[in-house]
Structures are given as structure tokens and as C-alpha cells.
Design goal:
With about 230 residues, this protein is an alpha/beta fold. About 30% of the residues lie in helices and about 20% in strands. The mean pLDDT is about 95. Bound molecules: S-adenosyl-L-homocysteine (SAH).
Length: about 230
């Protein structure tokens, strides 16, 4: 069974978008993963195909109706579907590389893209939606967030990106930011590739890279480092 993603959205035409390009697109063609985008509006009950209504208690904007969203979720993910149900939401747990890896090893995901002011709390609770955020800022809708989540997940599905070693050194994989990368030409605008990288001494190269990773992480993201022992 390969990883199966179902995305519930008011804008299914945005998919696969970037998820269909490059290695992810190839992985899809090779059936390492699959994607369906479901139009939420198809589950509306009235002639105007209404999916939202005004917020109870007042305030700006509109809220996605729980009945319509629940019907869509139930149709896409019937009882017995083992896939986690995820709501893209700025209130959610932050997306991490660890989370992406966990999801990549599972059967897939049902992903709900919010719009407007968000979704009725009763469908979040009633359908046990796990809220995930891609960062501390507010987007206009969950579609780009869903693509970010899926891109991070799909590229770590075994087979999608080639050798496992292509992940091992990456930012976050070892708890650190990645060291600087270089490639030819040997001299660019008068600047040489650090000589150690062309020395052929793999032990010293590994040590240099680790030092660089530590220095970068210390200056840019000290929050990633383990707390100093007192
Ligand atoms: N009123 C909401 C924001 C709604 S933004 C609040 O203050 O929490 C509209 C939709 O965009 C959300 O329902 C969500 O699906 C998506 N979205 C916005 N920012 C996001 C983020 N940082 N991460 C994931 N999804 C986000």
C-alpha cells in the first residue's frame, strides 16, 4: 500500500501544482504515492452550494459549516480508514521534520484546507481533526499549507528521493542546520571552494561540516540546540 493523500478544498484545481513537479511528480507516476483533491462544495445541500455561514457570536468573516465538511470527510474517509485526519490551521501544532517522517511511514492523510475565518469547532472535535500549522503567520487558506505539508512528507517516502543518505545530513535531520554547500567552478568571483572540501580527506571533511553546522545553528537557531548542562 502506497501513501494516499486526500485533500478537501474549495480550490481542487490548485492541486497537484508543485506536488506534480520533479521528484514528487515522478514518485506519483511510479505509484509511490497518490493524491486526490475533493471539492468541498460538491457536498453542499442547497441550490447555491453554500459552504459557509456567519460566525455565531458575531465578528468578521465567515465560518465553514460543520455539516457540509463532515459529509465530505465521511465520504472521503469512511469508517476503517486508518489515515490521520489533518486540519491545516495556524492554531495547530507546528509542522516538523519529525512529524513529516512519521506521516511518510503511515498509510497517508486526509487533509482539510480551511478558508475564511476557519471551521466550526464541532467538526474539529467530532471528526477528531489534528490541527497542524506551517508557521506563525496567517495565510488566506489551507491549500498552500497542505502543499507544504505534503511536499515535506512525500519527499521522505522511501524511494521518492533516491538514496537514504541524501537525507541524513540535511537541516533538522540531525537536530542541526545544514553546513554550507559548494560545487564547481573551483573559483567563483574570486572566491575559492574551502580547500578542505577538495582535500579528499573524508574524516576532516565530516569534522569541518559538523563544526559549520554547529556554528550556524548556534548563531541562527539556538533554540534547536540541547539546553546547556549547568
Ligand atoms: N481565523 C483563523 C485564521 C483563518 S485563515 C485564526 O485566527 O486562527 C484561513 C485558513 O487558512 C485556515 O482555516 C487554515 O486552513 C489556513 N491557514 C492559515 N494560516 C495557516 C498556517 N499558518 N498554517 C496552516 N494553515 C493555515
Amino acid at each position: 500500500m502506497s501513501f494516499s493523500a486526500s485533500v478537501i478544498t474549495l480550490f481542487p484545481e490548485l492541486f497537484p501544482g508543485p506536488l506534480g513537479a520533479s521528484v514528487l511528480g515522478r514518485g506519483m507516476a511510479e505509484k509511490l504515492w497518490s493524491l486526490e483533491a475533493i471539492q468541498l462544495r460538491d457536498f453542499a445541500q442547497d441550490r447555491h452550494r453554500t459552504v459557509d455561514d456567519t460566525p455565531s457570536g458575531g465578528g468578521a468573516g465567515m465560518v465553514l459549516k460543520p455539516d457540509i465538511l463532515a459529509s465530505a470527510i465521511d465520504a472521503v474517509s469512511p469508517p476503517g480508514d486508518q489515515r490521520p485526519r489533518i486540519l491545516m490551521s495556524p492554531r495547530g501544532q507546528p509542522l516538523t521534520q519529525k512529524k513529516a517522517r512519521e506521516l511518510a511511514l503511515g498509510p497517508g492523510a486526509v487533509i482539510i484546507c480551511g478558508r475564511f475565518e476557519g471551521v466550526d469547532q464541532r467538526v474539529i472535535d467530532g471528526r477528531q481533526l489534528e490541527e497542524i500549522s506551517i508557521g506563525d503567520y496567517v495565510l488566506a487558506g489551507g491549500e498552500v499549507a497542505a502543499m507544504v505539508l505534503l511536499e515535506a512528507v512525500v519527499r521522505v517516502i522511501p524511494g521518492v528521493l533516491g538514496g537514504a543518505e541524501s537525507h541524513a545530513d540535511e537541516s533538522f535531520e540531525n537536530g542541526l542546520l545544514e553546513y554550507p554547500q559548494y560545487t564547481r567552478p573551483q573559483v567563483f568571483e574570486g572566491v575559492e571552494i574551502p580547500p578542505i572540501l577538495v582535500s579528499g580527506d573524508h574524516r576532516r571533511i565530516a569534522k569541518w561540516r559538523l563544526e559549520q553546522s554547529l556554528a550556524l545553528t548556534t548563531s541562527r537557531r539556538p533554540d534547536l540546540l540541547p539546553p546547556a548542562k549547568s
